[in-house]
Structures are given as structure tokens and as C-alpha cells.
UniProtKB/TrEMBL annotation:
Residue span(s) of domain ABC transporter substrate-binding protein PnrA-like: 44-349
Compartments where found: Cell membrane
Lineage: Bacteria, Bacillati, Actinomycetota, Actinomycetes, Micrococcales
Residue ranges with Basic and acidic residues bias: 66-77
Protein name: Basic membrane protein A
Superkingdom of the organism of origin: Bacteria
Family as reported in the entry's similarity comment: Belongs to the BMP lipoprotein family.
InterPro entries: BMP_lipoprotein, Peripla_BP_I, PnrA-like
Signal peptide span: 1-20
Length: 350
């Protein structure tokens, strides 16, 4: 979920921000630190490390690579509403620091990655959630996920668990990517109950990407859904999802039959402890798998450019069971998953 950056327009501030984030940079060698470790740069989407969702999943992939592959990492935060040139400058600063393996988290980087990859052919880039011509290049891995497939399963779970037969969906920004989450969720819910009502709200429209980092807007949107009768709300809204959880809590939480569904990470493990009990399940998007796989491919000299889509079949997306709230319906969800994997069910993406 997919998911502009933490810096001012001034290049000096950007450079300082990059220096302050991540591991120290010895600055020697192309792609290796002073001790010979491969140097990996990670440029976050809105919210950065600590968003309990999309960016945190990417961070886990880098952390795993540090531990298992011995790479050195540097992380660059993102801020709302920054310009294309700011994103380009961020990526170029990583290149200038000797980071020749670079991951850009989020489709907002598409044009920046395309331009920087062309200007720096010896650098290997990966972009999460974009397969467009804007980012395509012989040194670019375009990492995507079948969010619609995982969302189908949590939509089915919502329909099976709903008492009011009315559920909701809160999207951060109305883009084709987030529409994939909505499409899968609605299709899964309607598979179980064709008459179920699905309320949908998007917090912002492009080019305003603040919908991924505005928990107050998320709460307001979900408040309205719960007040109008929805008893389960799924959010694909990055950091704004915390507001959806707060709304479920304010509506009475699980004790009153008010649930929320998390996204990207197993948010019953990562969200504020006060709201974890009301998270019915989460559609886990294993960005960490894509990030680690890319870094390992560069280190092993097996890098391949182009689109790689992580699906339900290969563990790219999954449904969390933390809390045991969906244990009673898991056989039904497993049956649906099998049908998606074998192609019996074709999940819409729009």
C-alpha cells in the first residue's frame, strides 16, 4: 500500500538528513565500504521507518540483508509534497556516497528512478510498486505485488465476520495501486455475500499524497463508516491507517463488534498496543521479501532487470492470523486461497 519525502527543498539540508540516517558511510570504493561490505541505499516513501506498515516492511528487508548478507545500509526519509527534483537529488546523493545498490520505496519515485538509472548505468536500482515505462531500464528491477489477491481474502474474512452486513474501505490516495486493494477486497466480500454493502473513501487525490500520512483524516473517514453501520473497515492508507484503528477503538472496539483490518505488515503485532486487540486480521504485503531478494541478487551477481511480481502463490502477500480472530473461518479462506493459486478464481485488479 503501496505509499514524497523528509527533507527541505534545500540541498544542504538534504545532505545533512542523509548523513544523519542509517549506517555511517566511509565514502571509499564503488559500492563497498571500508571493510568491503556492499553498500545499499534505501529511500523511503511517506512515513518512513516507523510507519508500522509499508515502509517498515521494506526496512525489515534491509535489516535482514544487513544480518545475513553483511551489507552496509543507509536510509533516507521522505516528506509530503516534495518535488520530483528533490527525489532525484536524494537518489543521486546516495550514488555520490558510493551506494551502488539502491531501493526506492513507492511508485512516486518512478520518474526519478528512470532518470537516475539512465544517468548511472553502473548502479543497480529497484523500485517498489511500479512497473511503468517511467522507471524501466536495463539496471532497474521493478518489484510489484498481487495486493488484489491478499485483499480478496481479507474481504472474504470481513464478509464472513460482519454482523451488520456493511463493511468499509479507506484508501490513502486514489491511485491505480490502491484501487487494486479496493478491487480485491470488494470481490472477496461479494464472493461470500453478493448483497453486502461496501463503503469506500479515499483520503486524498494525486498529486496530494498526504493521504498516506494523515492519521486524523483516516480517523474521520472511518468514524463516519462506523457511525453509518459498518462494523469492519479495511485500510490501505499507510501511516493514516492508525487513525482507522483509533476510530474502531472509539466506536467500542472488538467488545462492541467494531473491527479494523490492517495492511502491509501484521499490524496486530506492530500497531499501538491499545488497538491491537481490535485488528481482525491484516493483508500482509511482504515488501521485505522483495527488498531482500533484490539485494541478494546483486550480491550474488544474479540481478535481472524488469518486472517481478510477488503473488499469493509465492508468499508475496498473505493473511495474518495473529490474535486468533479468524481461526474459525480459516478453512474457508484456505479454500479460496487454493482457488486463487490454481487459477479457478481470477481476482480483479481494478
Amino acid at each position: 500500500m503501496r505509499r514524497a519525502l523528509s527533507m527541505t527543498a534545500a540541498f544542504t539540508t538534504l545532505a545533512l538528513g542523509l548523513t544523519a540516517c542509517g549506517s555511517s558511510d566511509s565514502g571509499d570504493g564503488a559500492g563497498a565500504s571500508g571493510d568491503g561490505a556492499m553498500k545499499v541505499g534505501l529511500a523511503y516513501d511517506v512515513g518512513g521507518r516507523g510507519d508500522q506498515s509499508f515502509n517498515d516492511s521494506a526496512a525489515r528487508g534491509l535489516d535482514q540483508a544487513k544480518k545475513e548478507l553483511g551489507v552496509e545500509g543507509k536510509e533516507s526519509e521522505a516528506s509530503t509534497g516534495e518535488s520530483e527534483s528533490a527525489r532525484e537529488q536524494r537518489l543521486q546523493s546516495l550514488v555520490d556516497g558510493g551506494y551502488t545498490t539502491i531501493i526506492a520505496v513507492g511508485y512516486a519515485y518512478a520518474k526519478s528512478v528512470g532518470k537516475m538509472a539512465k544517468a548511472n548505468p553502473d548502479v543497480k536500482f529497484a523500485i517498489i510498486d511500479d512497473a511503468s515505462a517511467d522507471s524501466k531500464g536495463p539496471n532497474v528491477a521493478q518489484i510489484t505485488f498481487a495486493e488484489n489477491e491478499g485483499s480478496y481474502l481479507v474481504g472474504a474474512a470481513a464478509a464472513l465476520k460482519s454482523k451488520s452486513k456493511q463493511i468499509g474501505f479507506v484508501g490513502g490516495v486514489q491511485t491505480p495501486l490502491i484501487k487494486k486493494f479496493e478491487a480485491g477486497y470488494k470481490a472477496g466480500a461479494q464472493k461470500i455475500d453478493p448483497s453486502i454493502k461496501v463503503d469506500t473513501t479515499y483520503l486524498t487525490q494525486p498529486p496530494d499524497f498526504s493521504g498516506f500520512a494523515d492519521s486524523a483524516k483516516g480517523k474521520t473517514a472511518a468514524d463516519g463508516m462506523y457511525q453509518k453501520g459498518a462494523d469492519i473497515v479495511y485500510q490501505a492508507a499507510g501511516g493514516s491507517g492508525a487513525g482507522v484503528f483509533n476510530a474502531a477503538n472509539a466506536a467500542g472496539g472488538a467488545s462492541k463488534g467494531k473491527w479494523a483490518i490492517g495492511v502491509d505488515s501484521d499490524q496486530a503485532l506492530t500497531a499501538d498496543p491499545a488497538v491491537r486487540p481490535l485488528i481482525l486480521t491484516s493483508m500482509v504485503k511482504n515488501v521485505n521479501v522483495g527488498v531482500f531478494d533484490f539485494i541478494k541478487s546483486v550480491k550474488d551477481d544474479s540481478f535481472k532487470a524488469g518486472v517481478r511480481t510477488f503473488t499469493l502463490k509465492d508468499g508475496g502477500v498473505s493473511v495474518a492470523t495473529t490474535g486468533g480472530h479468524i481461526n474459525d473461518i480459516k478453512p474457508q479462506l484456505d479454500a479460496l486461497q487454493k482457488q486463487i493459486v490454481d487459477g479457478t478464481i481470477k481476482v480483479p485488479a481494478s
